[in-house]
Design goal:
By secondary structure, the chain is mostly helical.
Length: 111
Amino acid sequence: MGSLAVGFQSECYEVADIACKVFSHVAYELKGHDEMAEPIWKWFTSFQGGLDAVLYSVHRHQFKHQVIKPACFAVLYQFSRENLSDLFDVELPRRLADPATYLDFAHSFLV
């Protein structure tokens, strides 16, 4: 999974969008297997794992937000659908330590 995550770091927002679609689909397929739920969540929330890659992509492609935002939201949802409270209560605040940055990020997905 880590080797595919470099797509999020591409300078081209279209490549990042494709990476989002691939990761969203992979997470959807893997989450259907109960034994994969915990290892996937651990990878996603690990240092330089999937969550860090998604956050990087959102920041890097902020001017193409109409394309990247929905794609990144799909990735966040598919990887954390059983752990949404952990995502918003633990993992995102850990990475977005400034409350204003965290609230801005959360708000950007609501509008």
